[in-house]
Design a protein that fits this description.
By secondary structure, this protein is α/β, with parallel strands linked by helices. The chain is 15% helix and 37% strand. The chain contains four helices and 14 strands. The chain has helices at 99-106, 140-149, 193-200, 217-229, and strands at 13-18, 23-35, 38-44, 60-64, 72-76, 80-82, 87-93, 112-116, 120-125, 130-135, 155-162, 176-183, 209-216, 238-244. The chain starts with 12 loop residues before the first strand and ends in an 8-residue tail after the last strand.
Length: 252
């Protein structure tokens, strides 16, 4: 097991950006199944003019239509934005029977939906670093987008948890990628043990490296503590985000 000392390294630059929150009325243009429990829904419309999302883990608010009630607000990652076609793609990890999952399963071209944001963005600049991206199904959209936007030759390791081999996704990237898939039941998605077992076996590259984590809140916290206490990575080189909570709160 590799232990690193990043405390003496120059800190990565994290650029904070804020934007005016704009509500946009869009329609569904395409629905694509990426895996048995992952859908990509492409939205479009003239109101996407001026849309801006600089970071791969930005989030926008979707106002999900609910029959007979107020729309349900949910946060999602902008997976891909085509400024020429004015199209925005969003990936939906389908689980449970919540408002967003129900809407995504039933979505068809022409359906209307409103979005808002992003409110802000955090752009991480560490051009000479290797990357370790860790996440469950909810973080796969951000992971995939970051991989596709990475500079050619960037060393990156991904550790992603899904239900089984049929849920594994393929990403187009110019980075030097080592993908590691962790298979576990969806019922164990809030258990950090499968992740901790996988990362304990990693032989991390030498030199500065940035660890990005997106998972259930307690899982993200356990992984963050592991890399600080067991691998010697300073907090400047870790970003751990709670994408959802086992108590039911949706973060992404």
């Amino acid at each position: 097991m590799t232990q690193l000392d990043t405390a003496s390294l120059p800190k990565p630059v994290i650029e904070h950006q804020k934007f005016d929150v704009v509500r946009r009325n869009l329609t569904v243009r395409r629905v694509q199944e990426l895996a048995p429990n992952m859908l990509r829904i492409t939205l479009g419309g003239d109101e996407l003019a001026g849309f801006n999302s600089p970071s791969s883990d930005d989030h926008i608010k979707l106002f999900i239509p609910v029959p007979g009630g107020e729309p349900a607000a949910r946060d999602y990652t902008p997976r891909h934005f085509d400024s020429g076609a004015l199209e925005l793609s969003i990936d939906f990890a389908l689980h449970g029977s919540g408002a967003a999952t129900t809407w995504a399963r039933q979505a068809k071209p022409g359906d209307a939906i409103q979005i808002a944001g992003p409110r802000g963005s955090k752009v991480i600049k560490a051009p000479d670093a290797w990357w370790l991206l860790i996440g469950d199904e909810s973080a796969l959209p951000a992971t995939g987008r970051r991989l596709e936007e990475m500079a050619a030759g960037t060393r990156v390791i991904t550790v992603a948890a899904v239900r089984g081999p049929e849920e594994e996704l393929r990403f187009e990237t110019k980075a030097n990628l080592t993908p590691i898939w962790v298979h576990r039941p969806i019922a164990d998605a809030a258990d950090p043990a499968p992740f901790l077992k996988a990362v304990a076996a990693l032989d991390l590259p030498a030199g500065p490296g940035f660890v990005w984590i997106g998972a259930e809140g307690e899982v993200a916290r356990a992984l963050r503590e592991y890399f600080i206490n067991e691998r010697g990575i300073s907090t400047d080189w870790i970003k751990a985000a709670s994408y959802w909570s086992k108590n039911g709160e949706n973060k992404k």
